TrEMBL record:
Species, as recorded: Rotaria magnacalcarata
Name of the protein this chain belongs to: 2-hydroxyacyl-CoA lyase 2
Record domain Thiamine pyrophosphate enzyme TPP-binding: where: 46-166
UniProt cross-references to CDD domains, sorted A to Z: TPP_PpyrDC
Catalytic reaction annotation: (2R)-hydroxyhexadecanoyl-CoA = pentadecanal + formyl-CoA
SUPFAM superfamilies given in the database record: Thiamin diphosphate-binding fold (THDP-binding) (SSF52518)
Lineage of origin: Eukaryota, Metazoa, Spiralia, Gnathifera, Rotifera
Length: 198
């Protein structure tokens, strides 16, 4: 699957009160457009524009502060590799509501498509790294059926996080992919208001 196809499948499993932190670059742009197509609004998503590698730290802070909400961190392989030490911090904090989804296409897609070491699945596995750090549950999916099955399992895990799902997908993105039409300040304000909801 492409990242956008995988993201569309993941998005279909979110519930109204779920909080989403999207990594920088193409994934956040795709998330913004998919939300528009679905008529969902954008207040549930924090788009980590220009903060490559920091989405998981932001999501961790929110998960700790909002233990009654489910927090999804939508991450990229290049971004996770950039700040991999955060995986250990997430596991040590052990937020039961933290769901970490890593879209692994083996490239730095947002900055030119340079390869990452995570593309070699025989040598590298995010799920094994996360498990070694202390994540409670890890999953791998590479097609729509696997993603659906994994998301159903993740949804059923309520008080035993953190959880990591590695999506092994192909590189590339649509050439006509737009950019968010909300400013980062507007996104922040809407998102902060959404976090205040019970």
């Amino acid at each position: 699957l492409t990242r956008e196809e995988a993201l569309k499948c993941v998005l279909s499993h979110f519930q109204h009160r779920d909080v989403v932190v999207g990594t920088t670059g193409m994934l956040s742009r795709e998330l913004f457009e998919l939300r528009m197509k679905r008529g969902d609004g954008h207040e549930r998503d924090f788009l980590t524009v220009g903060g490559m590698g920091h989405a998981s730290s932001i999501a961790l802070g929110i998960a700790i502060q909002k233990p009654s909400r489910t927090i999804y961190c939508l991450d990229g392989d290049g971004a996770v590799l950039m700040h991999m030490g955060v995986l250990a911090n997430i596991a040590a904090a052990a937020p039961s509501n933290f769901k970490h989804i890593v879209f692994n296409n083996g490239t730095h897609d947002s900055v030119g498509g340079q390869p990452t070491v995570a593309g070699d699945h025989k040598q590298f596995s995010f799920s094994q790294v996360a498990q070694g750090c202390g994540y409670k549950h890890v999953f791998i999916a590479s097609n729509q059926n696997d993603i659906t099955e994994a998301m159903e399992k993740i949804r059923s895990i309520n008080n035993d996080g953190p959880v990591l799902l590695e999506l092994r997908i192909k590189a590339g993105h649509r050439k006509n992919l737009g950019r968010p039409t909300l400013s980062t300040n507007e996104n922040r304000k809407d998102f902060m208001h959404f976090l205040q909801l019970n």
